[in-house]
């Protein structure tokens, strides 16, 4: 299985007001390097007969859970999440940061080999201290973290990426509890997006050492919507669901289900052993 790594680095120069904690803290530091896999890794196609706990019609991957629509002309994808409290799984090493990421994107599926748009929140737990970081990315460019954008458990956060053409997009993220919006518009970008998929994803992401999955309880995406270049707007009614398994024989560690036409929930269902 081939993964093309995405280098996820810190662009500190973008925001001026960023002060370091004055006391020693367990709070996870801003990740220096995170590698996200470019595409979902479809265990389902290799393992048509999964354990009985598997939900029918769900594709399992090693890293992405959530919902995906595929066709042509996707230009906007958005959703609002309630930021979850985090816990280390039973038996987890407290000094190993555990993580998960929730994001919305365009062109994450295999059909578009060139580019991918994403905006979301990385969530880390180190000892008992959580840290939440908002970011956006025009793959294959590096992702940009919003270092002065506060996020806490329980906050309601809207993520939105909207492409005005195949080479320009506006990424926005709003924390309704702080009233703050981070917004960035990129124009004249290359490579071009395709607009072949829109997705709402909870990612068990990888970095150079592998980041173990944190117990996030569940993450609900509400007001999940996409729109197309022809002005069609819809939710997740027609979306395919994905879940995460660590390996072919394993039980799912993230399972997702739809909650009506414009919402879905993804739940942590199992632990990794570190
Ligand atoms: C985790 O907390 C320890 C302090 O207990 C700190 O030294 C370490 O840098 C933290 N790890 C990360 C990734 O922030
Ligand atoms: C993204 O990378 C392309 C080259 O691949 C470059 O032309 C463009 O300016 C980059 N955009 C940003 C925002 O860094
Ligand atoms: C998403 O962003 C676009 C462009 O900034 C905006 O026109 C649209 O109303 C936003 N949609 C949602 C659901 O927030």
UniProtKB/TrEMBL annotation:
One biological process term in Gene Ontology: proteolysis
Domain of life: Eukaryota
GO molecular function: glutamic-type endopeptidase activity
Coiled-coil portions: none
Signal peptide: 1-19
Gene3D superfamilies: Peptidase G1
CDD domains recorded: Peptidase_G1
InterPro entries: ConA-like_dom_sf, Peptidase_G1, Peptidase_G1_sf
UniProt keyword annotation of Electron transport present: no
Residues at the catalytic site: 203 (proton acceptor)
Keywords from the named record: Signal
Record's keyword annotation contains Signal: yes
PANTHER family: ASPERGILLOPEPSIN, PUTAITVE (AFU_ORTHOLOGUE AFUA_7G01200), PUTATIVE (AFU_ORTHOLOGUE AFUA_3G02970)-RELATED
Protein's recorded name: Peptidase A4 family-domain-containing protein
């Amino acid at each position: 299985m081939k993964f093309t790594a995405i280098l996820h680095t810190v662009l500190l120069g973008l925001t001026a007001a960023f002060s370091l904690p004055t006391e020693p803290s367990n709070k996870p530091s801003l990740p220096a390097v995170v590698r996200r896999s470019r595409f979902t890794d479809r265990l389902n196609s290799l393992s048509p007969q999964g354990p009985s706990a598997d939900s029918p019609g769900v594709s399992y991957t090693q890293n992405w859970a959530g919902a995906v629509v595929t066709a042509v002309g996707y230009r906007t994808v958005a959703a609002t999440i309630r930021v979850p409290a985090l816990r280390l799984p039973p038996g987890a090493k407290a000094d190993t940061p555990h993580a998960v990421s929730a994001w919305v994107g365009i062109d994450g599926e295999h059909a578009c080999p060139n580019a991918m748009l994403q905006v979301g929140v990385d969530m880390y737990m180190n000892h008992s201290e959580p840290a939440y970081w908002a970011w956006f990315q025009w793959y294959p460019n590096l992702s940009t973290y919003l270092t002065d954008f506060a996020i806490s458990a329980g906050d309601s956060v809207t993520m939105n990426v909207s492409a005005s053409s195949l080479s320009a997009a506006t990424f926005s993220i709003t924390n309704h509890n702080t009233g703050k919006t981070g917004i960035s518009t990129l124009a004249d970008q290359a490579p071009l997006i395709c607009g072949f998929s829109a997705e709402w994803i909870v990612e068990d992401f990888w970095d150079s050492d592998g980041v173990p999955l944190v117990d996030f309880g569940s993450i609900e995406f509400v007001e999940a919507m996409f729109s197309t270049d022809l002005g069609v707007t819809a939710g997740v009614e027609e979306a395919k669901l994905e879940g995460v398994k660590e390996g072919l024989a394993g039980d799912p560690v993230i399972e997702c289900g739809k909650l009506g036409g414009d919402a879905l929930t993804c739940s942590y269902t199992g632990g990794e052993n570190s």
